């Protein structure tokens, strides 16, 4: 807008009366906000508009590059996500929650008592305020600004409703008194008032959803940063085992959204009727007098008491519903994830039973909520719609029936002022009609506001259930203590008197006090002491379930040792038996957990990657799958052995000092397995192999055997000791002497064939 036209607009605004200025100012402010949102929104709308305006569209290669890159690391530590959208690439800057902010907010999330039930208590307010501090990090943040604007429009709507009620009365009065001019004027005003009223309504809806979305983004980012924390917390790994929380996906996706929807709807449902109640009561009290107003308040008190008494525990019901929803979702997710295994067993029918059971439990619960609601809503409707209306009729009738004609609602306009009761019975009727219509409308609005408030009470209870769900997730994630730091700058792995066992459920709560679980799981491996220098390859063996992988978990830092001291260099890569395939391109599979920008930074090229694939006998993949950037569901595309080879390809890409190979070549043919082991050793990688295959022993210098008798004992022997070599020598002599006899066996065979008349061709 040009500056001259702005100042002209300012002058015009000044000429308007303060009352008529308010809606116009609100309109202008909101237009400015919408405009600034278009400009400031990081990427999404603006990039598209700007690029469309310039007629500049990214080439398909740019989009492919963006798909591969995913994000760009910025100098300030933030990341800029590249999101291909239609024919454009949108850039969205994401600032991670600083670890210090996570650490300081953890004090606001003490664990709830195990006996906690959601309700409107102080605990609910504490939980809500802890969560809201994440959604509204400061008073000056954009969310706070939207909230203020939203509240302003909510109040403006109520002010406009009062105006509409008054105008309504005035129009009917003019109609009854056959005042055509006044009637037409009233109608004109009616249409004028409709403009800010309808605009206010749409702004309220818009601001409510945009506030909800913004809060969701903040909460989701915070939860992601917390959940996907790297060492020393690894919360995504430990939240189930040590935190005892199942189905985190339901919490992070559906529950956050449900919580915020409930919160933002509730805010509107609470502010509007509360303001309505105050303003309408004020308007009405002028016509009802002190005793009428007192009766009105008595009416509020009685109805609120009745409804409180009949309100079921909606909070608890909502919490249970979310949990059952999560169980059902997890069931459906499991079938999708394990589809092939289920199909091999033809287990569809069995899975159907399991899913149907989960769904039936959910539906039964929802149905029972519906049934409980019938009785509650019946009482609510009866009280609010009929009891309140009847009380309203009674209250309006008092001044009318007692012959009082005190002016209600709208004061007659100056032009209509001479029309007083003394001018004749018609005017008296007209005035009473005006008063009645205004008051009636106010009373109906009052009953509506009361109904909404009562609904808000029920919504508030439901919000308490959703708050408890979200709070439980955040407090459980926060409660996981740091894992001990086991890394140092040396080139060797040392374990001294280490006990390895399944970590206990981290905290259980009794009477709001933290207590470490009393029953620590007995160690699987006891008093393990070993020292592994670079170049000393260790093989760990033992029967199933003795704790071989448990040792790998301790070495990786996933489980804290139950006793003793573990020290290892930073560069230890653990390759599990079940190879994990990341969402992304073929190239992403090899470089995982590196991202594309890290790969570029490392200076490696596609030629290097090809050499790696050749060393694991997967060189045919890029050509077969359509290139390095092909994106597929690799978990389904690659065979079990191919996936395991890909796991080894990662080892060759990262070249760590130590690689823990946890039966990660069990599905690979022996010849290829051997060549991969040799290759790893030639790259200078020290191997720690967990395997039951004796054929792998020859690639190692030490053998750690775990006893299968439950004692947790271990024995460490050197592979290739003098005794072992003597054993091998004995075997060689034995075989050689047998080979010496081969000639005599062949002669005997020919003799036998001759006797049987079998001719050798
Ligand atoms: N999260 C867990 N919760 C409870 N028990 C566990 C957990 N993880 C492992 N265990 C138990 O710890 C024991 C050792 O497990 P581990 O995976 O180390 O066995 P393993 O020696 O590697 O066996 P395998 O040769 O079959 O792979 C097993 O009895 C297993 O059931």
Automatic annotation (TrEMBL):
GO biological process: fatty acid beta-oxidation; long-chain fatty acid import into peroxisome; peroxisome organization; very long-chain fatty acid catabolic process
GO CC annotation terms, alphabetical: peroxisomal membrane
Any one GO molecular function term: ABC-type transporter activity
Classification of source organism: Eukaryota, Fungi, Dikarya, Basidiomycota, Agaricomycotina
Residue ranges of the region described as Disordered: 409-430
Family statement drawn from the similarity comment of this UniProt entry: Belongs to the ABC transporter superfamily. ABCD family. Peroxisomal fatty acyl CoA transporter (TC 3.A.1.203) subfamily.
Protein name: ABC transporter domain-containing protein
Organism field: Heliocybe sulcata
Gene3D superfamilies: ABC transporter type 1, transmembrane domain, P-loop containing nucleotide triphosphate hydrolases
Residue stretches spanning the membrane: none
Keywords: ATP-binding, Membrane, Nucleotide-binding, Transmembrane, Transmembrane helix, Transport
Pfam families in UniProt: ABC_membrane_2, ABC_tran
Residue ranges constituting the ABC transporter domain according to the UniProt record: 508-734
Tree of life domain: Eukaryota
